[in-house]
Amino acid sequence: MPFSSEYEAVIIGSGFGGAAMCARLSKRWPGQVLLLERGKAYPLGSFPRSPNDLASNFWSPRDDTSERPRHVARQKSDKGALLGMFDVRSFARMDTVTCAGLGGGSLIYANVFLRPSARNFEQHWPQGLNLATLAPYYDIAQSVLGARTIPPHQNEQDRRFILRTQQFQQFAASQQLPSKLSDIAVYFGHGYSYAGAAQPSEIGLQEKNRYGAVQTSCTYCGECDIGCNVHAKNTTDLNYLHAARAYHGAQVQTQARVNQIVPLNAAGEDDASADGQHGYRVYFDDFAAGSARTVTAKRVVVSAGTLGSNELLLRCRDIYRSLPRLSARLGQRFSGNGDFLAFALDGQREINSTYGPVITQYTDHHLFENHDPERAFLLEDASVPTHAGWAVAALQPVLHPWDRFKMLLSVAWEALASLYPGRKSQRLGSLIQQLLRHDVTQYSAVLLCMGIDKSDGRLQLNQAGFLDIDWPQKTSQPLYDAILALGERFKDFIGARLFMPMPNWLWPMRHNVTVHPLGGCTLADSPEQGVVSGRPEDRGQVFGYQGLYVADGAIVPGALGANPAATITALSEWIAHGITGQQPDDTLR
Ligand SMILES: Cc1cc2nc3c(=O)[nH]c(=O)nc-3n(C[C@H](O)[C@H](O)[C@H](O)COP(=O)(O)OP(=O)(O)OC[C@H]3O[C@@H](n4cnc5c(N)ncnc54)[C@H](O)[C@@H]3O)c2cc1C
Ligand code: SF4
Q: Fewest CB atoms less than 10 Å from the CB: which of 12, 51, 411, 571?
């Protein structure tokens, strides 16, 4: 791609923060905005599905020595580098799962668009920034992302009926807890997702969405967390980024990993003592071309996600020393958003966990109603891809050894009986049916919880100069205990044989896993309190620098309890409004 000598703005990262920013800045400065994204683009049908391709679709570039699971390290040494989607990292007491690709986390997220409780903004947020201030930006983000609840069904035979949703609703009622259908950013047809129609388009119908990108009306396949191959998820490459490119000439470069940001002096030279008034030079690796490159810009917006933005800025401050004025608070107030994954396995009630979009409802455990910050969390249902259902079905011999033994006897008997001349086997169909019935995912549930953890973690660099997380964990134990207690009650409700918190929670591992990392570059009223300004006049700007902004999960000052993408997008809209001075709307024109 030919680069211009100087851009009005360079944006780093294409998740919720970066994509919304790209649409707004490119409208303000058409053709003069460049977005750099380290991952690849995923056009219709390109998300891998075979076990081998999925296993290779991790992120671990050649020179990156971050702590990653052993099998990722092995794959990397076989292939030299892994430049796929799943960025899985292991730290002491906390693992993280994020995404590399055009669209960032939206490619593999569970589609939930949820505003947090107003109570959330009472502590640690800058003065005057709250749910009411952000309401217009949430409205626009929700409209652009096309988030609505799952469409209604006529009866239980209707393909739009999702049994799992019903079971979670019944569980919530049994616990006197409210359950609400989640707004999800899934395409159910232009009319339903964007124009407010009561009825969706036919399942599987392909149409252009309101921004001109081709999407498919959701097929209920349950594969949202490994990338939607029919583009029914309203990922940011199909709305914000599509419009930025189509309407406003934004340039987007994938496979471009930014390594360093350096301020320029009046002569246009790199100068670490400069404050950004003359712009910045951005250094990046172009993985496709196999070369290192640079661009300059008047403004830089860092939207590399909580892990990416903190790592980049920590390296610029402490290793390259190109941004020495960054606040001493950089890396503090990290939160895993109270994430906790668990399973209720092999129950008596049918759940059908391989059907429908991944999350459809949330059960409120003292987050919105009867707010109790010590044990405030949400319980969300989840589907798993059918492939996982087949893999779990392989557990049958372990879970039901007697049934399997009887089946083997049947096969042996059938083989013997077939030796009688003229006897026809009639039992093949029945054997296949026996083998497949009562498959584990049909009677098991995935429990996704998230809540108000203490947000007292710290992001820092390890000795090799890559990101490390210090997660105190014990301070958030009351939250995890409340989640475990509700999980046990869910197990009893469906009559499950086993309640299993995520496997690495077992003693002595005691690891949390988060898919919602937040904080580290927190919004604040002053550099003594945070890294990025939360004041209306210079919102989103990094303290100590002009024209350097952060707009992503890193600026959220603590756990939200709710799924964070809505808040990240709304904050990015709010910051972009400040930078451009232009009132945003959902047409993106
Ligand atoms: C399985 C899963 C399910 C989830 N479900 C939900 C949900 O239902 N609802 C919800 O609200 N949230 C959900 N989340 C979380 C949500 O995806 C994140 O909170 C959100 O994507 C964060 O947005 P962001 O803009 O901060 O960063 P990201 O979306 O992470 O985007 C950052 C981008 O920057 C790129 N990048 C990083 N470093 C560099 C660099 N140095 N140079 C160039 N590019 C770089 C990354 O590749 C990435 O594309 C889920 C996450 C996962 C993993
Ligand atoms: S259920 Fe299937 S078709 Fe629908 S959004 Fe998820 S992955 Fe796409």
A: 51
